[in-house]
């Protein structure tokens, strides 16, 4: 009996649809129910209009229309509840599908990390770090040795101070020579401003006419 149950369970497991397929089926069912909703809403409007039309002239027809409207409203309410249930189930499936994809990605990343760590042990890491440090120290020692070639000559600070003083004197003498040269240059005579009165507009016009006559 247990063997039969086991086979039955395996068969059912093979027939389980994928999450995407289940979500698609739920969406199709929702679309069908939404169309049924629209149909019932139109029928309710018609029955309500019929009841209003015959409320004064034919009471029996008005009552029958109200009864049909009540049945239609009950169906519409049931469909609303069914849609809510399907929507909740579809959202749960979509969330489960997303979680499944996330878990697959995490599992894949974990396997890759494990493969990388299997190739390099902690001891290997420390050995590599020691080698890098050793080569860095050796490179620094070589650089210091190269830079030290020819730099062992003693430098006389007193001699440097004398050179600085000589440079100062040279700059000072150069400035004095420039000032003396400027003093030796002759002064430039600027044009003198006339002291008399300027000619008025009439005289100026007369002069301009004479200049034009001469030109002719």
Mean pLDDT across the residues is: 79
Number of helices: 6
Tell the overall outline: elongated
What level of helicity do the residues show?
A: over 70%
Helix-and-strand structural type: mainly alpha
Distance between the termini: 140 Å
Main sheet attributes: strand count, strand direction, barrel closure: none
Q: Point out poorly predicted stretches.
A: none
Portion of residues in beta strands equals: under 5%
Radius of gyration computed on alpha carbons: 54 Å
SSE order in H/E notation?
A: HHHHHH
How many E-type strands?
0
Please explain how this structure is put together.
The chain is mainly alpha-helical. 83% of the residues lie in helices and 0% in strands. Helix 2 packs antiparallel against helix 3. The longest helix is centred in the middle third of the chain and has 61 residues. The chain is elongated, with a radius of gyration of 54 Å. 1% of the residues are buried.
Ordered list of secondary-structure elements with their pairings:
Blueprint: H1 2-14, H2 19-54, H3 59-119, H4 122-148, H5 157-184, H6 201-215
Helix pairs in contact: 2-3
